[in-house]
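Worked example 2:
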Amino acid sequence: MSGERVLVVDDELPMRLGLKEVLKRAGYEVELAEDGEKGIARLDAERFDVVITDLRMPGKDGMEVLRHAKSRHPEVLIFMISAHGDIPTAVEAMKYGAQDFIQKPFQIDQVRARIRAGLDTRGESKRPVGDLAAGEVDESIWEEFPHVVGRSDALGRVLKTVKKIAHSPLPVLVLGETGTGKELIARALHEHSKRSGQLLATTGQLPASLIESELFGHIKGSFTGATSDKAGYFEAAHGGTLFLDEIGDLPMSVQVKLLRVIQEREVVRIGESKPRKIDTRLVAATNVDLEAAVAAQRFREDLLYRLNVITLVLPPLRERGEDVIELGRRFLEKASREAAREGMSFGDDALEVLRKHRWPGNVRELEHACQSLAYLAENDVVSAADVEAAIA
């Protein structure tokens, strides 16, 4: 039995009682409050490890419970319960210190796992990530993301946010120039979430004529060439994560259906009228200015609103300091091994060229340059002239 204490603050009696039953079975001591004012009073009178509070309540709402708890009892973990229309406010609550929020409708049994994860995370470090200064990166973050190459503060701040939001079911919008590693961040989100044991599906570049079928699926005979039923990416990634790249290029007709999937958590295959429930976490990415696309009527504003709940902006390579050197060495090592020239390295003059280049194609451009060097460099120690020729 855990012995940890949970306070449930909700104006709906069935919700309070349902949560109490589930959490008591998990070994927690559970107390109830029927509104924000009573919840605050109990917080001040007793010790709690966790507070689960509804966002919308008469009188004092969940935000007031959060503000009071964080000012008077900062060690308490706050979980916010919210409906679809409350998402922007709930995200704002996370910025002000809420551990996570649980979006309605939800399976009550899933709450138990979210709370346990929050308590376990709190116990892993004496210093919460949220306490770090804006420009400071805890060195331990690199140990948690061993496959991410680099040590710059700009990248570290992105990973710090990834760690915080990984367990959330919210959609994530990843923005950044071409070649900055958006798929790598999607993979990091997936691997650090409770969905890591399930599929991470990545769409790649989808043919325009097949986008709808590939994403949402179809049934046999629904169009020419549909010779059998087929599940789309959303169904295939049920229980896991879907990485949808180049979302800014989706046709408007597909944007409408995607909006429904996000709102209703269900898909309708082409040729079918019955919706199918899904539990798929969406990570979308683009290098397009979506606000400009909305202004130009190429992207739906309501879809942007749904996607832009949590946004990660990946820094270009030119803003990542010495990361270019570490990445270059890693890419050259791999490329030289594949080219049967294992042991190649950069000379000091070559490293200086790497540092000064602007890398408009970012990490992808650097990787391609190293692949070229593995075959074309005259010697095993790459010179400045070799690098200049590779990036010309």
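The CA atoms of residues 154 and 319 lie 7 Å apart. The two ends are 65 Å apart (CA to CA).
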